[in-house]
Amino acid sequence: MKSLEEIKANIIQMETKMTERRIGLLRGILAQRTRHFAMVLEDFYDPHNISAVVRTSEVFGFQDVHVIEELNPYKINKSVMKGSVKWMNIKRYQERQKCMDHLKEQGYRIAVASTNTDQTLDMIDLSTPTAFYLGTEGAGNHPDTLKQADIEFKLPQYGITESMNVSVAAGCLMTNLELYLRREGREKYTLEAEEQERLLHEWYSRHLEGFDEHPVVEDIC
Description:
Order of helices and strands: HHEHEHEHEEHEHHE
Radius of gyration: 18 Å
Strand content: 5-15%
């Protein structure tokens, strides 16, 4: 891993190859990025849903998406992504337990939507980093995930239909998380200075190297 000094020197060099407008845009967006909340995709099989959640995460400034591939491989739909994955970090796991263990080591609580609780999202203490597990289409969250979850919550529903499409539910969830960040002060939850420098270096590299819409996926385990 490069030292912070090397990272900063490379950033200065790369900025000589970029326009002031692009530099200002990326630095401004970076200042709002957070890892306080993260989405976890549990064995999604529909590339449209995967891509929609990644794209929505990028729009709301949530930097990481964690993908479990125990049953279904990670696939994306470029037309849905709209290039959003260029600015994201995708972390992939072959086993759901490995994902859960890794997130807890990073200080995250595990939150899952459940029909077995009356606790709504606004009743949860969101001041602690929280990873929201989104269960596979149709089947929902895996029993092992529900068993080990730190938090269960529900999104309010007033219709007859039992559930929302998973990517729509993710959008509703992230809208509420953004409202929390705005209310509490997003600056409290943005990246530390060194994290920002390293991520900026990564973004500049992707931009200058003509990075396409195939994401750089980090295989955790």
